[in-house]
Predict the structure.
Amino acid sequence: MSDDLRELYQEVILDHGKNPRNLRQPEETTHCAHGHNPLCGDQLDIFLNVGDDGLIKDVTFEGRGCAISVASASLMTEVLRGKTEAQAKALFDNFHDMCAGDEDGAAEAADPEMEDDVDRLQVLSGVRQFPMRVKCATLAWHTMKAAMEGRSAVSTEDDD
């Protein structure tokens, strides 16, 4: 990764960390879960409003955590709005592989409609070089998946 690209990624992470998008509890919620990373103390609540058509109408979060955890939650809320639950789970898999997988993990989205979303999430792929930070980046995503599965809470100690 070039120094210019690394610097841009750091700026995006800092921007989302300091000015998170969709940091609120919505009026209408169909799914919610609490996520906790006991290693660093990050705690997030993810709120989803999924319509009868299966589309995510709104996704927000509340909580506190490090810049990577908050930035990841903020970016997640932006890319998931308007997606189906199946697309959200596919993005989860892709993001998890990108952060925790090998160097070639998550290079492309399986669904061409999601290529731009996967590209936007690449800013967090650098955590792969810092294994202790992977759980920070994936906390919001594991919490979103837990909410969709009807679980009320998840810990990074439960994740693979």
Observations:
- The longest helix spans residues 131-148.
